[in-house]
Amino acid sequence: MRRQINELSMKLQLAGQGKDETLYKPGPFGTVKALRTNPTVMPDESVNPRLAKILEEVAVKKELIVALANSNVREMLEVWFTNIKRVGIPNFLVVALDDNIESFCKSKGVPVYRRDPDEGIDNIAKTGGNHAVSGLKFRVLREFLQLGYSILLSDIDIIFLRNPFDHLYRDSDVESMSDGHNNMTAYGFNDVFDEPSMGWARYAHTMRIWVYNSGFFYIRPTIPSIELLDRVAYRLSHEKAWDQAVFNEELFFPSHPGYEGLHASRRTMDIYLFMNSKVLFKTVRKDAQLKKLKPVIVHLNYHPDKLDRMKAVIEFYVNGKQDALQRFPDGSE
């Protein structure tokens, strides 16, 4: 019902755009609340009829997990989809970036989509490393949104332990996991910058938040979401930049002279449910109470020995081996 109310309110708001009259009358103090959720786009199957047919078969309630993969990450990909199957998540899809991965997925009964040839993308897709392939997803995902589907984009260095669709709010254009390692860094804090030479005005208050992780986020099919993908894809094709940095700059930088900021809503995921590997190895594994919590996913984003740690996460959370995480250092030393 809440979703229906939001949709009807948005339609009223859109209907009133461009008119001089006031559409809403504010209520009493403390009761005023702005609209949170942008309306979804009208699906356009003509964009990619073949993909539309695949999504109709795979998606559940117009939602699915999507991962991009080439042959460089085949072993990790198998760990990735094996755990998705173990949890019982039916709505996931691998976007194969080369023929070998397409054949591999088909042989394992994994839903797979091989894009039509595109010279501008295929050279990177077949030979690129993690960062290069990661940047492709912003171009590839656009068609999914145009077809009207909400996508939970996932890197393949992630272990699924519960169904993530049971833990989403779906009230924002982008709902992302954080690289933050505690409540302060993940959800924002007032950081005071000290400049003694300024005397009385030496203390400047700054607002800070650690970046969203561009390897695991839920994105709804809205106009701001598609604009985000377009902006990031354009910059990555014209700049030598890290996709995660660009992703965050476009989401967070405000409008200012010479720049129009993106008007997209965003939500930070719970860091103990959607857990990065810094949280796991620096905090959770050393805390008796936090070790009892079963996260939704663990993303091995902070460590280079990804496959080894992925297997250890499975041993700990799935097989109950209590010392499975102990042999690893906190970081990558």
TrEMBL record:
Uppermost EC category: transferase
InterPro entries hit by this protein: Nucl-diP-sugar_transferase (IPR005069), Nucleotide-diphossugar_trans (IPR029044), RRA1/2/3 (IPR044290)
An individual GO BP term: cell wall organization
Pfam families per UniProt: Nucleotid_trans (PF03407)
Signal sequence interval, chain numbering: none
Start and end residues of each Nucleotide-diphospho-sugar transferase domain: 89-310
Subcellular localization: Golgi apparatus membrane
Record membrane topology: Single-pass type II membrane protein
EC number assigned by the record: 2.4.2.-
Family: Belongs to the glycosyltransferase 77 family.
PANTHER family: ARABINOSYLTRANSFERASE RRA3 (PTHR46581), GLYCOSYLTRANSFERASE (PTHR46581:SF4)
Protein name per UniProt: Glycosyltransferase
